[in-house]
Amino acid sequence: MKYITVLIFCFCHTHLFAQQLQLHYDARHSIATKYNAKNFMTFYFEYFKQQDSSKAFIKPGSFLLKTQADFTGDKNNPGKFYMQVSQSFRFWRPKIFMSVQYSGGLGVTEPKQYSYYINNTFSVGLNYPFQWKGAYLNSVLLYKYIPYKKPSGDFLYTLYWWKGLWNYTAEFAGDFSVWTENKNHGDDLTKNLKGKQFYFFAEPQCWYNITNKFSAGSKINMYYHIYTTENILQVYPTIAIRCKL
After folding, report:
1. In a domain, 4, yes or no
2. Which of 73, 78, 205, 243 is most buried as measured by Cβ atoms within 10 A of its Cβ?
3. Percent of all residues in the chain with a pLDDT value above 90, rounded to a whole number
4. Are 203 and 182 in contact (CB under 8 A)?
5. Phi and psi of 120, rounded to 5°?
6. DSSP letter (8 states) at residue 94
7. Is 12 helix (H, G, I), strand (E, B) or coil?
């Protein structure tokens, strides 16, 4: 599973710093009752820093820490936690960066015996930040390793974007990712499966800036083979508020 990394990726600026809190109401149960037990709130915290010194031998690029908590548990307690941390750097002149990334988490279910881990994922690869028609983008190609009982090593491609609209009164941001994984994870459920499974995840989002710090908006979570093995695209919009710290 791959998640998501969002919002202000102005990668061509140096010493860029941003922190933000987001609170989303996800109405996926109302949209697709068959696949979702309830609607819930999701809380995000993100810390992003861009620094690129041209003097140091090892030139640090972007650093991102993102956490996500879904309040899917009994009495709306947190039922899922996810974390992603990544760092890019370079020690050459072209602004193509080496990138290392870790992600993982866990989920609590009812009944408790079906609780699960979001498997540790370790990734390394390249990212290229650029601008296009006033938008800031970052193209990332990683090789990721998931230590299932039968480990899976695959390529993951992600494109991040951010663009200010109407004199930065509004923002259009988000990312999408595509990757593959082995169908056979070495457990009893998948031991007879063969080949690779294709995955797609996207989270485009729009924000209207009420003040310099507070925004209202929506994110559209899009999943293919993330929560079901059926060949369907699941699309779940949210209603959200955001605070920049």
Report:
1. no
2. 205
3. 80
4. no
5. -55, 135
6. S
7. coil
CA distances 67 to 42, 102, 123, 222, 223, Å, are 10, 12, 17, 19, 19
Bridge partner residues of 82 (DSSP):
68, 105
Structure pTM? Answer: 0.88
pLDDT in tens, 117-140: 899 999 999 999 999 999 999 999
Mean pLDDT of 220-224: 98
Rg from Cα positions in the chain: 19
Give dist(CA 26, CA 7) in Å, integer.
Answer: 18
- Peptide bond preceding 111 in cis form (omega within 30 of 0): yes
Q: Is residue 193 part of a domain?
A: yes
- Which CATH number fits the domain that encloses residue 43? 2.40.160.40
Q: Which amino acid is at 148?
A: Y
Domain range enclosing 211: 16-244
Q: How many domains does the chain have?
A: 1
Residue with tokens 């209603």: 239
Residues 166-199: tens digit of each pLDDT:
999 999 999 999 999 999 999 999 999 999 999 9
214-244 in b/e form (b: 16+ CB < 10 A) is ebebebebbbbbeeeeeeeebebbbebebeb
- What does the block give as tokens for 144? 């990721």
